[in-house]
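Lab meeting prep.
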Amino acid sequence: MSSWIQRHANTHQSQLAATAVLSGAAVAGAILGYQTYRRKEAVKGLKASIPDISERHHAEPLTEYGTAPAMSKEDERGAALARRAQEGDYDDDLILEQLARNRVFLGDEGLEKLRSAFIIVVGCGGVGSHAVASLTRSGAAKVRLIDFDQVTLSSLNRHAVATLADVGTPKVHCIRRRLEQITPWVRFDCRNELFNGSVAEDLLAPWSMDDNDKGRKPDYVLDCIDNIGSKVELLHYCHQHSIPVISSMGAGCKSDPTRVTVADISAGTDDRLSRSTRRRLKALGVSTGIPVVFSTERSGPGKASLLPLSADEFSKGEVGELSVLPDFRARILPVLGTLPAVFGYTLANHVICDLANYPIDYNLGGKGRDKVYDSVLGTLQGLHERLARLQVGHQVVGLRLPLTRDDVGYLLDEIYHGKSVVTGLPSKPALVPWQRPARGWGPDPEWEKEGQKFVPVQLKDFVCMTKEEAARHEKNVLLGDKTVEEIYDRSVVDKVNERRKELEAYEKDA
């Protein structure tokens, strides 16, 4: 073997190959050495360009979440006071004095239940930040905050406590830092993480920050998430594990604070977030038992809405790439800054009263207008039965209108604002068909073949009048030979046409 190696090592080709390898290694070494030298010189030059720390060039260490500090003197004093207060160095009499108004409202026992409760808020944006602010100001003292996002400039139109100095910092730490200056004794457990089903067990785990209260399960969870997937996973987990939870539906595209209410999730309205949440939870076996905050306000012409992405955006490639995270919306939702606050305070109000055992008596249905809606629907049903009987010549048994109480409420409150389209009077409202239908008043013959006696009508077929006006309209238009143009001023006819267009827009959107 050694002789074979010696024989081949002495060949001309082998010598050339060895020379090439050595030359290449030398060149590579020289290049790498030169690059290393250049890097060292560049780093040296960069360091030399940094000015020395002085009064003119001040420097501070990064914050605990890796950003430049934005601590004013007031922030520093607030943080120091909060550390002392959370360690017990804060007079309880001062706390009770600050909570005096809540104390006299809830009573000592109720306030103590709130102060000892462990509350989790998932989602710390416009809705969640106002909920947290209200809870801590009212006495909640153990709060876990969960949110993956940072404060942005666009957050400032609706965030409860964020300032310009907080832009770029995690929302959970922004809330903690600001609220510690108001309620320094509150202990915050900040989780700068994205909630989903895979981490639910960890993020909703018992309290672990206080040796005196370790292992305490959540007394309440507030769902302030605006992403449908994460929202459903949170609500489903809480329902499965019997954790009290209340959920905020969509505050985007809403403008009427008087329409915000609380009810069981089964009674929510048809805004897209409510509808999608109900449908997905029902598929998981959850159809009731979760209180939700929602708005009964519906979209319509002239109101803000979430528009579809333009063809230009689709042509750029994968639409999902426009989202901050996978499965998150890729569009900016129109939000009036006041409505998220209303939703947040409504959430907090429910939790405060529930934990303190204060009586809660919500009345869903247009603030007690259920009886009005039922009465109007019954009168309308009777009108169609009477008109159908006059047409067919005998009693029409089982005739039904394809309308619900919610439809009646929408027509009265949202479209006609509880006022007659003729005179604008709000008294004794009634719904009445605007014109005689071309096919008559009898039931649909196609449905009759299936054994159903339905009148084929749509919401746009009806207008709001007073009962007296409706009776005259029935006599002159529905049973008489006059047209609406002959009976009413042009302004009334135009107003009805505008309302009908609004209804068509709503039905198309729904």
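Slide two material, second protein:
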Amino acid sequence: MAIKVVTQHVLNKKFEDFEYCYLKSVNRSYKYVSLKVNLFKTPITKFRGILYKRFSGYRPFMFNVTVDACRFLNDTRSNPIVSYFLEFFKPFSNINHSCPFNHDLIVDKVSIDSVNYRVTKVLPFPEGAYLLETHWIAYDINRAVVKVYGTIS
């Protein structure tokens, strides 16, 4: 899998701001994604994830799910789809406990090799271009959107 672009969009700068969000290529074989979100008001209460596949434009593919973040983190087996995607970055983040999150969220150096392993060996995806769009929701208001574009070949 090749991750092409990671974008973020803050909808309310009084609520949170991205300190950084980038895809870094160290050399030809080692690339990683890192991000840090400074939360000024807590908590993030819901999370929405949508997976798109490119078919002459990006179309919804496989899932579009919204979960109560605190309830899910108390029992990660309650939603296998979200649990699968959480395992992409959980070992690389400070999202390793249940609610409340009253601190900044950090995802540090998620290697493309680990992502590649999950999308080709753990749950094989068909080849193609994908977009994973995540919405971070607090008090039933969409606060931030993070989009990750990638290609499986």
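Talking points for slide two:
The chain has one domain: 2-152.
The helical segments are 69-74, 80-89, 112-122.
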